[in-house]
Amino acid sequence: MKKHSGQDRSLTSRWRPATQAVRGGTWRSEHGETSEALYLTSGYTYDTAEDVAARFAGEQAGMQYSRFQNPTVQMLEERIALMEGAEACKAQATGMAAMTSALLCMLSSGDHVVAGRAAFGSCRWILDNVLNRFGITHSIVDARENEQWRDAIQPNTKVFFFETPANPTLDIVDLEYVCGLARENGITTIVDNAFATPILQRPLDFGADVVAYSATKLMDGQGRVLAGAVCGTDEWINGKLSPFQRNTGPIISPFNAWVVLKGLETLELRAMRQSENALKVGKFMATRVERMLHPGLPSHPQHNLVRKQMTAAGPIFSFILEDRAQAMAMLNAMQLCDISNNIGDSRTLLCHPASTTHNNMGPQKRAEAGVEEGMIRINVGLEDPDDIIEDLDQALTAVGL
Ligand SMILES: *Cc1c(COP(=O)(O)O)cnc(C)c1O
Fold first, then answer.
1. CATH assignment at residue 304
2. How far is the CA of 59 from the centre of ligand 1 (A)?
3. Is 259 found in the same domain as 272?
4. Which run of H or of E encompasses 319?
5. Is the pLDDT of residue 186 over 70?
6. How many folded domains does the chain comprise?
7. Based on the domain organization, do 30 and 116 belong to the same domain?
8. pTM summary value
9. Which range of residues forms the domain containing residue 359?
10. Whose CA is nearest to atom 5 of ligand 1?
């Protein structure tokens, strides 16, 4: 297999993100294919017994087994690393495999984690049900409040873990402050950047240490595959995370990696257009619904912070109706947009977090996380925004708003 200029870091690292999204990490076979090849193989063969021995001894570059390396997966990893401005990246089977691997490779028994209150339900579940079994404790803070991060630091605090914007309350974390605070105190920051992707926000530019992804969301963006990725320093990714993955196996299928690789080619177009559509739909919703959580609108209390650290506000916002019954009735009245708990998709999707993604938290933790009973989260897609608005309009009318 022939190395393409896409593998020469001294060249590709100079390319801008939109170029990297299309060309970064490309690796062409002897056939010179235009589109990246899908290497759907679990293993590899060797010319000689000495070759395989040299590879297993780490003396010869090349593939050994697809739990260790796969050319399609490596193209995806290289492309994401380039887009993120990271030294290295490893891909995983799902976003949750990415979060779990990142946390387990950073923490040991006796350590303490500070995490943002609003978080993807399963991220919170790992803290409560996995890490605590190994003597890793945590504190939950209102991630919007800088001083809460400072006050939560204990002598054994090892990791700050948060999303921004957060699901589903669209809380924004002040990246520069919180990452700076972590650095001063020898704490590692792990940022779940699923809502933004490197197109809308690059946490490493603000001092984050590790960026973790559900690539299922905007990166695939067309509702097809589950995927995850973790970005960080070469030393940590290749020294810690890579051996962990080789031996525990949360590996992405080459097919899924290939689908995400193709998705990245249009990521910038989709992320920017969906952000634009979400702004237009949000402006309409603000005329009909009193309480909105839309990071792109000046009514969002942290709108200035959004403007400082994001290039656009993304496709997702939430609004709050009177109660669960009204929220459910509105979802049932939608005609074009779908009821679905996925996000980042090119289709407009609506979901009631309290009864779905955040159901297993129970009412008390939901209240603490700001997930209200009347809250609806919307992912605005690539449809004509006027059609989305007309659909929302008739559904709001149907529930008496
Ligand atoms: C979806 C999501 C995850 C989990 O990703 P999967 O690919 O579904 O495993 C983690 N964090 C955030 C913010 C998400 O939206």
1. 3.90.1150.10
2. 37
3. no
4. strand 316-320
5. yes
6. 2
7. yes
8. 0.95
9. 268-398
10. 95
